[in-house]
């Protein structure tokens, strides 16, 4: 009897059912408003967007030479490739592994009817398999003779890099990476040499040398 | 006088025996002579009697012959026949009797043929008479010859001679006997007188010689018997038994005196005396030695015993004093106990009332428990309803969660769209770059698309975050509901337990009510018992008072015992060891 007496007021104070109902009603109302925004709201949103778009672009310095490059993440490092060699960026799906290929060849994908091989840059560059990687994007590069896809975690976007900002790679950097590097920017962006990559003999897979 | 008493007495008796033997021998001889004489007299009488008988049968034969001759009757011959039968026998007997006398033997020899011829003559007459014709005459003639008469006269003469001879012998023997008897008489009379006189003298002297010293000794013995050991030692040089007796007697007196001296010293409590027994067979000395030893030992033991007694008496005295004080304390304790018993009685009364009250209360409590049980059952029902509600809440929350999941799927597809838009914008930018100057405007559009895609992505990310929060909230709600459900289950269980507890409580209370009733009854009995205890305490009080009095008497007695022990100790200390 004493227990019920004790717990009685607890029940009464624990839940304020009226407040709960009020809050629920408010939430429903707010949801309805968001789903059907009023004319004024729409206008403010559009104005905001227009304001953003209305930002003045910096005038190009005519004396400077620019490298238009695609910037992407790979294993938490930022890399860049000259966009002139990029055919397109494609979402990675339905990759088919190929038997009898080097380990850096992940497989092949179907890009609108065309078969493109996909290379894992980390394995090619002997980077350590450290950290989680999404690897859900494929950057397809090509020149006249070669076309293949490079795996990337995320594509950041197209960027213009002044050529003078690109510094030569560090002399300590040796091995295969050094061979395909074009340079490093001040903000630690690794610029890859797409032409060299396309011409790399190691990436050429032929039936004769495939053993 | 070196003769011993035995020699003296033996000598006296020898003299007496000698006199007796002399007298006896004389008497014996006289008596033997008398007996011989008497035998001879008897012998002579027998001879005389036989001679008379012989003569008589001869006469009978003659008489029978005469009768037969006269009458001729055969029956008159009977005496004759009897005489024929007897005469030989008689003759033999007489011959035998007179063998010791030659004269008489000669006469018998002369008599025998005469008798034979007489019988022959008689036979001749008888035979003659038997002839029937002229028999008598012939017989008369024969008789007339006087031949028979002559023979008969010869026989008579010889028989008379023999009788005269025997009568002479008889007279002679009678005289001899008379003389012998007179001698014997005088010998006995004079011998006896002489022996009496002589033995009297000898006996007197011997008796005198022995009895005097014995009298002296018996005087001393009487004194000893009367306890007087003061008799002086008489030195007697006599070597005989009496002398030895006297000496040993006075020796005995001396040793008795020594023993008496020892006894006197013992009587004077001096136990240091040394007793030397005369020999191993000295019963008195050995007994005294043993007695002194035993007395010493006993006295020592007695001393120890008395010491023990004295100390024991002291202890008893102390103990009795303690007991007395203890009895007094017991008295006060009993008084206290009595008052306590009175209090207990009051308490029992009170507890009886209380027990009754408890019984009533227990019954009320049982009713309350019944009500409580119903309440618990109602609460269990309520709990079960809450359980149902909880289940529906959980269901709703789960549905909410599933709907959140659907939203998540939508958001994923929106995100995918944003991603694709992003890619599209990148590809557009690439294409714009390839187009060079003409593509600049397109690059701006591509950039705008990219921004929109980014915003979409951010929006979806926010929505996902919110969805995650919702998911967590629903999980928390489900968990809370689950816990609530479990709490309700627990509540149901606890309510059931409470119901069971209340039921048990009700049972217990019922039992308690019964117990309280029993307690009330017991209390009544206890009250009665307590009153009895009060009575008993009164009795104990009286008994305790008596005990106290008795203990005081015992104390007095112990005091007496203590004094007795001290006295005994002093007494024992008088003994010199």
Into which percentage range does the β-strand content of chain A fall?
A: 25-35%
- Largest beta sheet of chain B, briefly? none
Indicate the structural class of chain A. alpha+beta
Separate helix tally of chain B = 8
Shape of chain A: elongated
Oligomer: heterodimer
> Order of strands side by side in the largest beta sheet of chain A?
8-1-2-10-9
What's the CATH architecture name of the largest domain in chain A?
Beta Barrel
Quote the beta fraction of chain B: under 5%
Q: What's the domain count of chain A?
A: 2
Radius of gyration of chain B: 86 Å
The greatest interface here is:
A-B, 17 and 19 residues
Give the number of DSSP strands of chain B.
Answer: 0
User: From the 3D coordinates, which CATH architecture of the largest domain in chain B would you assign?
Assistant: Orthogonal Bundle
How would the global form of chain B be characterised? elongated
- What integer is the average pLDDT of chain B? 84
Radius of gyration of chain A: 28 Å
| N-end to C-end Cα span of chain A | 87 Å
Mind explaining what this structure looks like?
The complex is a heterodimer of chains A (211) and B (577). Chain A has two domains: 2-53, no CATH class; 66-203, CheA-289, Domain 4 (OB fold (Dihydrolipoamide Acetyltransferase, E2P), Beta Barrel), CATH 2.40.50.180. Chain A contains six helices and ten strands; from the N terminus they run αααβββββαβββαββα. Chain A has 211 residues and is an alpha+beta fold. Chain A starts with a helix and ends in a 12-residue tail after the last helix. The longest helix of chain A is centred in the first third of the chain and has 19 residues, at 17-35. Mean pLDDT of chain A is 79; it is low at 1-10. Chain B has two domains: 5-216, de novo design (two linked rop proteins), CATH 1.20.1440; 300-573, Orthogonal Bundle (Helix Hairpins), CATH 1.10.287. The radius of gyration of chain B is 86 Å and the shape is elongated. Chain B is mainly alpha-helical. At the A-B interface, β3 and β8 of A face α7 and α8 of B.
């Amino acid at each position: 009897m004493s227990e019920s007496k004790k717990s009685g007021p607890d029940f009464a104070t624990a839940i304020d059912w009226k407040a709960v109902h009020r809050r629920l009603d408010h939430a429903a109302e707010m949801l309805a408003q968001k789903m059907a925004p009023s004319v004024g709201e729409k206008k403010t949103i559009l104005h905001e967007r227009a304001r953003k778009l209305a930002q003045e672009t910096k005038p190009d310095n005519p004396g400077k030479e620019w490298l238009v490059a695609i910037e992407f993440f790979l294993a938490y490092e930022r890399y860049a490739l000259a966009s002139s060699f990029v055919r397109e960026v494609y979402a990675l799906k339905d990759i088919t592994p190929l038997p009898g290929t080097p380990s850096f060849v992940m497989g092949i994908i179907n890009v609108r009817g065309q078969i493109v091989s996909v290379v894992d840059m980390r394995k090619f560059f002997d980077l350590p398999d450290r950290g989680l990687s999404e690897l859900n994007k494929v950057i397809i590069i090509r020149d006249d003779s070669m076309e293949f896809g490079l795996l990337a975690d995320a594509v950041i976007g197209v960027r213009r890099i002044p050529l003078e900002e690109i510094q030569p790679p560090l002399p300590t950097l040796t091995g295969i990476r050094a061979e395909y590097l074009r340079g490093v920017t001040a903000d630690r962006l690794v610029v890859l040499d797409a032409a060299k990559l396309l011409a790399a003999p190691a990436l050429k897979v032929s039936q004769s040398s495939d053993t | 006088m070196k003769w011993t008493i035995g020699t003296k007495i033996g000598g006296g008796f020898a003299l007496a025996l000698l006199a007796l033997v002399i007298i006896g021998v004389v008497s014996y001889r006289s008596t033997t002579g008398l007996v011989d004489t008497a035998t001879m007299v008897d012998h002579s009488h027998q001879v005389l009697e036989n001679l008379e008988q012989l003569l008589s049968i001869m006469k009978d034969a003659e008489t029978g012959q005469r009768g037969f001759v006269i009458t001729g009757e055969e029956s008159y011959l009977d005496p004759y026949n009897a005489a024929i039968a007897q005469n030989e026998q008689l003759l033999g007997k007489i011959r035998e009797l007179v063998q010791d006398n030659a004269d008489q033997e000669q006469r018998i020899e002369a008599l025998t043929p005469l008798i034979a011829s007489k019988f022959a003559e008689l036979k001749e007459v008888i035979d003659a008479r038997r002839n029937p014709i002229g028999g008598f005459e012939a017989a008369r003639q024969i008789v007339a010859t006087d031949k028979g008469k002559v023979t008969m006269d010869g026989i008579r003469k010889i028989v008379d001679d023999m009788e005269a001879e025997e009568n002479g012998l008889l007279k002679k023997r009678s005289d001899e006997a008379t003389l012998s008897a007179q001698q014997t008489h005088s010998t006995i009379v004079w011998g006896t007188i002489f022996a009496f006189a002589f033995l009297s003298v000898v006996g007197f002297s011997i008796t005198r010689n022995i009895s005097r010293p014995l009298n002296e000794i018996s005087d001393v013995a009487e004194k000893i018997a009367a306890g007087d050991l003061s008799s002086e030692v008489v030195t007697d040089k006599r070597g005989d038994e009496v002398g030895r007796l006297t000496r040993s007697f006075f020796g005995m007196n001396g040793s008795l005196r020594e023993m008496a001296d020892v006894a006197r010293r013992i009587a004077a409590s001096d136990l240091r005396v040394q007793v030397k027994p005369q020999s191993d067979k000295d019963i008195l000395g050995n007994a005294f030695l043993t007695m002194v030893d035993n007395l010493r030992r006993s006295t020592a033991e007695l001393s120890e015993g008395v010491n023990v007694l004295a100390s024991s008496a002291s202890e008893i005295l102390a103990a009795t004093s303690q007991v007395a004080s203890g009895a007094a304390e017991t008295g006060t304790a009993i008084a206290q106990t009595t008052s306590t018993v009175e209090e207990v009685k009051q308490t029992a009364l009170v507890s009886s009332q209380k027990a009754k009250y408890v019984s009533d209360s227990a019954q009320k409590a049982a009713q309350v428990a019944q009500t409580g049980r119903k309440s618990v059952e109602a609460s269990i029902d309520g709990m079960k309803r809450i359980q149902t509600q909880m289940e529906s809440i959980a269901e709703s929350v789960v549905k909410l969660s599933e709907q959140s999941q659907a939203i998540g799927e939508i958001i994923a597809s929106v995100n995918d769209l944003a991603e694709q838009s992003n890619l599209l914008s990148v590809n557009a930018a690439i294409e714009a770059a390839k187009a060079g100057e003409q593509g600049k405007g397109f690059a701006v559009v591509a950039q705008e698309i990219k921004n929109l895609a980014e915003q979409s992505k951010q929006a979806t990310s926010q929505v996902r975050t919110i969805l995650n929060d919702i998911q967590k909230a629903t999980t928390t709600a489900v968990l809370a509901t689950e816990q609530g459900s479990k709490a309700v289950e627990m509540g149901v269980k606890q309510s059931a337990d409470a119901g069971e507890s209340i039921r048990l409580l009700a049972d217990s209370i019922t039992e308690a009510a019964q117990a309280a009733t029993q307690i009330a009854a017991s209390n009544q009995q206890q009250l009665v018992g307590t009153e009895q205890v009060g009575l008993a305490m009164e009795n104990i009080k009286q008994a305790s008072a008596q005990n106290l009095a008795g203990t005081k008497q015992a104390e007095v007695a112990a005091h007496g015992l203590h004094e007795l022990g001290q006295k005994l100790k002093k007494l024992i200390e008088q003994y010199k060891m």
